[in-house]
Amino acid sequence: MKVFILEDDIDQALLVKHWLEKSGHECQHFVNGRSFIDKLPFEQPDLLVLDWNLPTISGLEILNWVRSSDYSDLPVIFATTRGHDDDLVQALDQGADDYLVKPIKEVELIARANALHRRHNGSAQNALVFEPYNFNSKEDTVDFQGQTVKLTSKEYQLAYYFFNNPDRLIARDYLLEIVWAKSSAITTRTVDTHISRLRKKLNLDGSTGWKLISVYHKGYRLIQI
């Protein structure tokens, strides 16, 4: 896997680069957003490890640029000192696939990077069709009613799991465990935010024959109407 690391702290970048290369990945380091943006037309990575507090162009601005560019499906992991829930939710809302708070651990970074790469390439999931929804695991997209909806990696995992488990009550804590590996940086509020976005993107309000409902103090259930 080819990994681009966008980090202005040289020591931190070298450490992350060492960990990833030790695990067999190819890495390139960028100290600012401009050098990263200039590189992309000539070489595309399989994963971006992104700091938030960068000179000139912030990590969040880079994320927004990526998601609106020709490279919008690039998996992105934030690795940042910003550990507030509001920062986490904002990053995930803007399309980050995962979020790690510094100091990060080698084993967690490698596990999350590998898992994200597998999911992005569709090796962990099979094709899935539940009328009117057609899931594309390679692109993290869902086709329905004549439109193609692009989901973030986490949104896709949630949708895939719900449709594979219709009518089952699924607790928030369980979703944290299977989708986010129960990271200490992730709370049930993050689950709620992703569920809200998923409802809107896939029209899971009953109008398509499927409804994603909240069960107070329990979790969520996807039902077919």
Automatic annotation (TrEMBL):
GO cellular component terms listed in the entry, alphabetical order: cytosol; protein-DNA complex
Origin superkingdom: Bacteria
InterPro entries: CheY-like_superfamily, OmpR/PhoB-type_DNA-bd, Sig_transdc_resp-reg_receiver, WalR-like, WH-like_DNA-bd_sf
Boundaries of every Response regulatory domain copy: 2-117
GO molecular function: phosphorelay response regulator activity; transcription cis-regulatory region binding
PANTHER family the UniProt entry points to: PHOSPHATE REGULON TRANSCRIPTIONAL REGULATORY PROTEIN PHOB (PTHR48111:SF40), REGULATOR OF RPOS (PTHR48111)
Pfam family name, one: Trans_reg_C
GO terms classed as biological process: regulation of DNA-templated transcription
The protein, known as: DNA-binding response OmpR family regulator
Species per Swiss-Prot/TrEMBL record: Marinicella litoralis
Annotated positions of the 4-aspartylphosphate modification: 51
Domain OmpR/PhoB-type: 125-224
Swiss-Prot/TrEMBL keywords: DNA-binding, Phosphoprotein, Two-component regulatory system
CDD domains xref list: REC_OmpR, trans_reg_C
DNA-binding region positions on the chain: 125-224
Lineage per the UniProt record: Bacteria, Pseudomonadati, Pseudomonadota, Gammaproteobacteria, Lysobacterales
The keyword Phosphoprotein is assigned to this record: yes
